[in-house]
Amino acid sequence: MKNDRGDIELAGVCKSFDGATYVVDGVNLKIADGAYCCFIGPSGCGKTTILRMIAGHEDPTVGEIVIGGQNVVGLAPVQRRTAMMFQSYALFPHLTVRENIAFALRVRGQSKADRLRAADAMIEKVRLTQFADRLPAQLSGGQQQRVALARAAITEPRVLLLDEPLSALDEQLRVQMRQELRRMQQELGITFIHVTHTQLEAIALADLVVVMEQGKIKQAGPAREVYAHPHDRYVAEFMGGQNVLSGRVEKVNGSSFTLAQAAPDGIEVPLLARSTVSVGDKVDIAVRRDDVALVRPGKDLPPGCTTSLPSRVLAIEYQGYFVKVMLDTVPDDEFVAYVPEKTFFADPFTVGDVVMATWSTGSALPLA
Amino acid sequence: MSAVLADMPGAVAPATTKAIAPSKGGRPWTFYVLATLFAAYVLALYGPMFCIYILSFQDIRGGLVFPMKGHSMHWFVDLFTQVRTGDVKGSFDRSIKLAVIVTIITVVVSFLAGLGFRRRFRGDTFVFYMMIGSLVAPGLVLGLGTGLLFQALGLNASWYTSALGAQLSWTLPFGVLVMFAVMSRFNHVWEEAAYDLGASRWQSIWLVMIPVLAPGLVAVALFGFTLSYDEFARSLQTAGSLNTLPLEIWSMTLNVTSPSLYALGTVTTIVSFIVIGASLGTIVLIQKKRGSRSKG
Hey, are the CB atoms on B196 and A83 less than 8 Å from each other? Predict the structure, then answer.
């Protein structure tokens, strides 16, 4: 019975190499069949180890890995029907593109004619026909990546695992190959699991973004949810685009609470999903950098803005369609406003100017 | 506009010539000093050997020292026909056979050791130092010991038993050290990729490791062959009643006083060069085969 389902479930997966410290520490996760899932986190957070455990290159110390309803712990990659694309591609240097791609069929004992025909079909799919007889060393980074993709895909896996597939490429090619990965994933219709440390890559590609820290999952969800509604300070800071402030709760008033800060009236924050806060609690909140408006002191605040914090401009970076303005709004944390280019240059600030950083109550997000 | 374009080559040219060509003043004085030093080194290295080669082509009146007396192939014929020059053909035969056996064992064992030492294991440093130990042990002493041990055990010393063992004590550590260098360039991710694609351990060795490491394996083979072919110290007390070529040459220096000794030197050098040429040729062929496949 051939089972083509590529849904994955990790249940209580732990991994320790030395028996004392856990690189992966109690990971539970469900990944739907045909999803594009990105694991993201700083180096050493255990994301690559999880990938290698799903691939069958490491065994979990504790826990189950279920693919298509079947516990695959202890099975070889071929039995799991997973395929891995390695970070530096690991193309065989002595084999041509065609032979590299046909390798998996060769070790299965397919006849030379059969396997080369299958390889040629795959080569066409990744648009490498004119390079079929070249050696890996004679290919560019992007071409090598396509060979690696084709070599993995020819085994007809139900899950394809990609270990930092774009890290070896330069910036422009990275964006281009990113689209190609997504295209291949849709064409093959299989589950892709992609490990990266680049936030932009993860939110651009993934249906499911998994943010990790020190062997644990911090947050898993759709890209937009993870970016716009981070659970806690770590995720907010790691995914970027947010200002994180902390303070003590001054008063609680129904659906919102007020955070004591340098602002004359404190910062009003909606309660949202956050269960309970009581006066005196230390709370982190996040405000999106592009939700912060800057107003010169004495002028009227934009409609809906209740909070305004006096700040001094520390630095200004022109970024094209927006301008990054760094402020000293809060004492210990970085505070940045992304001001649209046209708004900024209508009345440009200079370093040292005093401005009011302001946002509407709804933009403030309480963090766990 | 046209004026600007016309001006440009003139403005650009001096900069490019300066960047591409070295300064016209020629090479610095240090170049000549180092070149002279190198020439002296090459002369010291090859001069003595060329004396032997040249003197081996004298005619029948030839002696052991310069000046040359005529030129012919007389001493080469003499070498293989005269009994008084010793058992050149037999010893040459034995040396080649011995070198081939040593080469095969060295390549196989070095490759396996290379595989074994990829990961750390208990006592790996001990094994490593034991191996290096046999490399630094004086060859003559080691050969003497091997001979004594065979005698004590009541075994007959001969070129294919005791001499083989004594030579392996020399070629194996060398082979393993070369193999380590070769192995360090092998990316273990290739093995992992092979496993991921469904290759068995055997397939991954046969289809990935050996082809990738082939040039290195040829280098190990070359090492094994040449080290064995001209090994003297370790063979001296272990070869038994029948001499290997270096031993034969040595005994000839004691009792042969004709240029046929030099002729022997020339012949053995030619054999060495054939072996080296064949090895390098194989490496070039492997690389060329890969290159041509990629074009065609």
Answer: yes
- Alpha carbons within 13 A on the beta-carbon side of B154: 0
Per residue in A288-345, pLDDT tens?
A: 999 999 999 888 888 878 788 888 999 999 999 999 999 988 877 889 999 999 999 9
Cα gap B77→B199, rounded to integer Å? 57
State which residue of chain B sits closest to A156, comparing Cα positions: B197
First to last CA, chain A: 46
Pair A231, A199: CB distance under 8 Å = no
C-alpha to C-alpha distances, B288 to A94, B60, B227, nearest whole angstrom: 11, 47, 28
User: Against a cut of 0.80, is the pTM above it?
Assistant: no
Partners of residue B190 in chain A, C-beta under 8 Å? 90, 92-93
Contacts of A106 in chain B (CB under 8 A): 207
Q: How confident is the model at residue A281 (pLDDT cuts 50, 70, 90)?
A: confident
* 8 A C-beta contact, residue B94 and residue B101: no
Closest to A337 measured CA to CA, from A300, A294, A301? A294
* Nearest Cα residue to A351 out of A310, A311, A316: A316
Predicted confidence at residue A345, as pLDDT, reads 93
Contact A142, A177 (CB under 8 A): yes
Between CA B48 and CA A140 the distance in angstroms is 51
Q: Tens digits of per-residue pLDDT, B205-237? A: 999 999 999 888 998 998 899 888 888 888 888
Task: Check if A117 contacts B (Cβ < 8 Å).
Answer: no
Residue B242: what are its φ and ψ, rounded to 5°?
A: -105, 130
Please confirm whether the linkage preceding B211 is cis (ω < 30° from 0): no
Q: Which of A82-96, A122-136, B49-63 has the lowest mean pLDDT?
A: B49-63
Closest CA to A160 of A145, A172, A139, A141: A145
Contacts of residue A291, defined as CB under 8 A and 6 or more positions apart, other chains included, come to: A359, A360, A363
- In tens, the pLDDT along A35-79 reads 999 999 998 899 999 999 999 999 999 999 999 999 999 999 999
CB contact under 8 A, B290 and A106: no
Q: Between chains, do A104 and B207 touch, taking CB under 8 Å as contact?
A: no
Which among B187, B203, B293 has the least Cβ separation from residue A90? B187
Q: Does A84 touch chain B (CB under 8 A)?
A: yes
Which pair of tokens denotes residue B115? 């595989």
User: SS3 breakdown of chain B: % helix, strand, coil, rounded to 5?
Assistant: 75, 0, 25
Q: Is A312 left (phi over 0), alpha (psi -120 to 50) or beta?
A: beta
In Å, how far is A105's CA from the nearest CA of chain B?
A: 8
Instruction: Measure the CA–CA gap between A15 and A51, rounded to whole angstroms.
Output: 12
Do A356 and A301 contact (CB within 8 A), yes or no? yes
Reported confidence tier of residue B85, pLDDT bands at 50, 70, 90: low
B293/A55 CB distance under 8 A: no
Could you give the ipTM of this predicted complex?
Answer: 0.83
Q: Write out pLDDT tens, residues B99-154.
A: 999 999 999 999 999 998 888 888 888 988 888 888 888 888 888 888 888 888 88
Q: Quick one: which H or E segment has residue A15?
A: strand A8-15
A251: left (phi over 0), alpha (psi -120 to 50) or beta: beta
